[in-house]
Design goal:
This protein is mainly alpha-helical. The protein is built from 31 helices and 12 strands.
Length: about 800
């Protein structure tokens, strides 16, 4: 940027500090800024030989806008965007070219949403197709085309029969391919061994890629996304390498058969896409607040493709992950979710012309009496959520504090081996979790061949296919119930140890699987009770003999919603996701009843969901808006410094040298420093950011003549006077001084201070009494105090 552009930017910054000046006062101010504190003539400035430099638009390579593991200043980012928008609006009136540029700037947000939706939908489709193929690869291979999954392989076969629809000559299991025998103990053992071997290979590749190339690609990603959207900086977490490795290892991790899902990590993948496209537009790349608006919309797109639920994705972003969600972001989130859903639909990864694998159509309405088992499923979901959160957090804490955490590859291999060995004998745990949920959700029609639909049929029945009455359960159903009971115990236990390992791991699908299994068992039990005891008073009024009264698949759907709600504490977005996921719009009331009940039960044991618990475990500085602060403490009880601590590090307005400032920056790691009149009076003048102070001094040393270590730094309004010719050139930094830092008095209740930090997104707040500086409260201090008030370790807040 030329010197004239620098002068204009300085003028704009000065105008922001002088609110009584209007836009008409711009020209006189230019002349003032040309000469202010520099000793240069206008001709020197025009030739670029003056001392006034723009240090804000020319950051040094080693100094970024915000340092890693620090919190952004929401007010500052909002102010910068307002200034940028005002400047664009003013310039758009000067020429048609500037008008076109302003229109392009206005549309850039929608372009970013379009790109995010298209890339997210494409990646989700590729992941779905790859997972389908690699999951089936553990059991066999398609001879006609090795890249076909089992289902795709048999689509192309003309020799598939209705009774053996899953068998075709083109698809062979590994034992049949190697030995020529598909039955017998030897074939079973060989298939068993290769199933475990493939699972170990997939998980080993996943954890190795994560460990070597992208350590941030592990886990669900939602706790970190919530923290980033609240204003925290985690550099590299949404980078290109993380996007690539997370996409590849997500396929490997899900295909290995571990009790995890791809839905949570897809939110992380979508946010990586959002961060990638933000770098293409300066509007978002140079403003962390605007970037987070894009990431909120990207999270909605991630849930949209994960569940095929665009509306549910928007509500999930609003309810669960976003910290700042203005109306404009709501519209753009909806657009991004819509584009992502359209893209996924065009790819059609499931081959059923639908966005989801779980689409169901029930032909029986639900009855009021069924609310009792629905609510009981809600209670089960709340208890399961509590058990899972406490067990998983205890295991993750043990992983952090013991030798277990030093061997992540070994842990993944051991858990995968145990999972594969125990899962193979049970057909309901051997198959992928998504296929299991799909089967549990399905209604038993006349064309179903599942064990769960092995009912005793009446040979004299002549009813439409869609109106099959309740029937007594056959031996296949009872066998399936035992297998489902074992699968339920297995899923409950193994999921606790799986979530949080150093591989991509989502929680939505395993939680839904636990609830779907429990719900299907309850549904079959209620169905058989209604059939054998239709004269009981609870069935008499709504279930006639020979009628189709109970739909076990509906109970599985309600149970899935209850367990997912118990773990995540979602309510509104959960219900919308479930009815979009299944197409069961008629069953909103049972879903609502189960979701609310599970939340109430789980909240009775602890307010934090699994993501909030992991945020606390990792010590991220996240102020949850749902937490209530009811303690009677004051700002003076929390502010630093305490009585036993050294005095507050401050700068004076006209008596601090460059060497003093550089020493202070070197010896401390504070984000900024208060500026006072003098150390004796401690009257507050303003606040200066560490980054801007560092860049300003480095730039002045290199480009401004006469600035040395003994130069005095001035933050005053008046121009500094050089007493003698031999005195060093003073350095005036008034322009980087925030003259209106947020302050509270020492007697402000902490309840108010906490609310201010939440709603304004502050990094720090100065504490004064009658204009005299007493101390400072940072976001970290607030979090430490809240932890201390809840009898937790205040030092668990590890980051600044």
């Amino acid at each position: 940027m030329g010197i004239i552009g620098s002068i204009v930017l300085h003028t704009v910054l000065r105008i922001r500090d002088l609110p009584w000046l209007g836009s008409r006062s711009l020209q006189p101010l230019v002349c003032v800024c040309l000469l202010e504190g520099t000793g240069a003539t206008p001709s020197e400035e025009m030739n670029g030989t003056g001392n006034l430099m723009d240090f804000l638009d020319e950051p040094f390579p080693d100094v970024s806008t915000y340092e890693d593991f620090h919190t952004i200043d929401w007010l500052r980012e909002k102010s910068r965007d307002t200034d940028r928008h005002r400047k664009i609006t003013t310039k758009s009136k000067e020429s048609y070219w500037e008008l076109i540029k302003s229109l392009l700037d206005a549309w850039s947000g929608w372009v970013v949403m379009l790109l995010i939706g298209m890339l997210t939908g494409t990646l989700a489709g590729v992941i779905d197709l790859a997972v389908d193929w690699m999951t089936d690869l553990k059991e066999g291979v398609c001879l006609s085309a090795f890249y076909y999954s089992h289902e795709q392989c048999c689509w192309t076969s003309n020799e598939t029969t209705f009774d053996d629809r899953d068998k075709c000559p083109q698809w062979q299991k590994w034992a049949e391919l190697m030995t020529g025998h598909s039955e017998g103990a030897g074939a079973y053992v060989l298939n068993y061994f290769l199933y475990v071997l493939w699972a170990l290979l997939f998980s080993f590749l996943a954890v190795s890629l994560v460990r070597v190339f992208a350590p941030y690609a592990c886990g669900s990603g939602i706790p970190e996304i919530k923290t980033i959207l609240s204003g925290f900086i985690i550099r590299g977490y949404l980078g290109k390498w993380t996007l690539l490795i997370k996409t590849v290892t997500l396929v490997l991790a899900v295909s290995s058969g571990l009790s995890l899902g791809k839905e949570g990590p897809l939110v992380h993948v979508a946010c990586c896409c959002g961060n990638l496209f933000c770098s293409l537009f300066s509007k978002y790349s140079k403003n962390e607040g605007k970037r987070r608006e894009v990431l909120s919309a990207a999270a909605a797109a991630g849930v949209s493709v994960a569940f095929g639920a665009p509306i549910g994705g928007v509500l999930f972003s609003l309810e669960e992950v976003s910290y700042y969600f203005p109306l404009k972001t709501l519209w753009r989130s909806f657009f991004a979710a819509l584009v992502a859903a359209f893209t996924l639909r065009a790819i059609n990864p499931f081959g059923n012309s639908r966005l989801v694998l779980f689409y169901v159509e029930y032909h029986t309405p639900w009855y009021m009496a069924e609310l009792v088992p629905f609510i009981l499923l809600g209670v089960f979901g709340g208890l399961w959520g509590t058990l899972f959160i406490r067990g998983n957090i205890a295991w993750c804490r043990r992983r952090k504090t013991t030798l277990l955490g030093k061997y992540p590859v070994l842990e993944v291999i051991v858990i995968t081996g145990i999972t594969a060995v125990l899962a193979f004998p049970n057909p309901y745990t051997r198959r992928s979790t998504s296929e299991l949920i799909s089967e549990l959700f399905n209604d038993c029609g006349a064309l179903e061949s599942s064990q769960l639909c092995d009912y005793v049929n009446n040979p004299n029945m002549s009813r439409p296919v869609d109106d099959i009455p309740d029937r007594p359960a056959g031996p296949g159903v009872y066998s399936a119930l035992w297998q489902l009971a074992l699968a339920l115990i297995f899923k409950i236990v193994i999921t606790i140890f799986t979530f949080g390992m150093k591989i991509p791991s989502g929680l939505f699908i395993p939680s839904m699987a636990v609830g779907a299994i429990a719900g299907r068992i309850v549904g079959i039990a209620v169905e058989q009770m209604a059939y054998h005891h239709h004269d009981w008073i609870i069935f008499k009024n709504w279930c006639r003999p020979g009628a189709d009264c109970v739909t076990p698949g509906l109970y599985a759907m309600v149970g899935a919603a209850a367990c997912l709600g118990g773990v995540t504490r979602m309510t509104v977005s959960l219900v919308v996701i479930m009815f979009e996921l299944t197409g069961g719009l008629e069953y909103i009331v049972p879903l609502m009843a189960a979701a609310v009940t599970s939340k109430w039960v789980a909240d009775a044991f602890g307010k934090e969901g699994i993501y909030e618990s992991h945020i606390q475990l990792n010590g991220y500085p996240y102020l949850d808006v749902r937490d209530e602060f009811t303690h009677r403490t004051l700002a003076t009880d929390v502010m630093r410094p305490r009585r036993s601590e050294p005095p507050l590090a401050v700068l004076t307005q006209d008596s601090t040298t460059v060497e003093d400032v550089e020493t202070l920056i070197k010896d401390t790691d504070y984000n900024g420093f208060p500026v006072v009149v003098s150390r004796e009076s401690e009257r507050l003048i303003g606040f200066v950011q560490r980054r801007e102070l560092t860049v300003a001094i480095k730039t002045a040393r290199q480009k401004q003549d006469g600035v040395v270590s003994s130069s005095v730094v001035y933050f005053t309004e008046d121009n500094p006077q050089v007493a003698e010719a031999c005195d060093p050139q003073p350095l005036k930094l008034r322009r980087i001084l925030n003259l209106s830092p947020f302050t509270v008095t020492d007697h402000t209740p902490m309840e108010t201070v906490v609310d201010i930090f939440r709603k304004l997104g502050l990094r720090q707040c100065l504490v004064t009494r009658s204009g005299r500086l007493l101390g400072i409260i940072t976001k970290k201090d607030v979090l430490r105090h809240m932890a201390q008030m809840m009898n937790q370790d205040p030092e668990s807040i590890m980051f600044n």
